Amino acid sequence: MNTRMRRAAVAVAATAMAASLAACGSAKEAGEKPKASGSGAAGGAIKIGLLLPENQTARYEKFDKPLFEKKVAELTDGKATVVYANAKQDATTQNSQVDTMITNKVNVLVVDAVDSKAIAGSVKKAKEAGIPVVAYDRLAEGPIDAYTSFDNEEVGKVQGKALLEALGDKAKDGDIVMMNGSVTDPNAALFKKGAHSVLDGKVNIGKEYDTKEWKPENANTNMAGAISALGKDKIIGVYSANDGMAGGIITALKAANMSPLPPVTGQDAELAGVQRIVAGEQFMSVYKPYAPEAEAAAKMAVALAKGEKLEGVTTSKVDSPTTKGIASVLVPVVSLTKNNIKDTVIKDGVYTADEICTDKYAAACATLGLK
User: Fold this and answer.
1) pTM of the predicted model as reported, rounded to 2 decimal places
2) pLDDT tens digits, 102-130
3) Where are the beta strands (DSSP E) in the chain?
4) Residue-wise DSSP of 173-187
5) Which of 181, 209, 221, 230 has its CA 20 to 30 A from that of 9?
């Protein structure tokens, strides 16, 4: 994974910003609480708390964490410390982790919330302690200072458009099943909204689920229920909000002896998802280049820790249910199909052809010209 991470990060380096952020910031007395604006950590000795939500999805440990750490090191000449914790899908655990970070006097917090509402009280505590908070990937509630993610409504639109493309003129010849993400994740609502804006009126939605904790096994159970309720001959496509769930869905489709498999969407360009696309089992995924997202978060965190303003770092503003005009960076996404694997995840160094094209997928890779 280290080699992939390094290659992915190189593609979106920002040398000029690194120089300006590393050079700025004024001295701060030891033990003094950092402020959301004003003087920063002494001599660039920054301590950044990074809180990620879970380890079920491959991206967080394999991409987000190492890419973020690498960019922070680059921006601070290796003088910053990243204090890391993973909540393993438990909102109570994450709130305790915020408390620990406050006690440890981090200069800034970067939080990818397990539950966007449940984290609001902890965000408020951090702010009261003088610690600015960056919402990462999911827009947490509470007094957030900055936010970076992808255009999540656009993600759903991209997925919906791809499913319509796969169905063609047979889009109303049967039912589709919609497998949305967890209700505790605000991104899931945006994916769903975007997908419905494209699909409504153009397909028949036979069953729709909000999948608890994004877990593939829950998606598998839901899909088995949909097959039982609708009948396997009626299901012509499946909207899956991410690749992990797509894996559970496809397992259920195979267990029902559905052949050929209906088109299934996904998101995150996980290795297993890319391999299923190569094999023709999954129609598409949404490729979200993690390097620019992680690097934007690193730039925000370093700037805030040094008491600097975010002009020149952020590019837009968004509103949460509790906070208006949050300085933000939204990263564009790409529809990943068998036709552009070489020009996306391989070209960007996320995976090598050898990593994708193991023996099981060698013949399919050869057909696609990947090997």
Assistant:
1) 0.77
2) 999 999 999 999 999 999 999 999 999 99
3) 47-52, 81-86, 108-111, 133-136, 146-150, 175-180, 204-210, 235-240, 285-287, 316-318, 326-331, 334-336
4) SSEEEEEE--TT-HH
5) 181
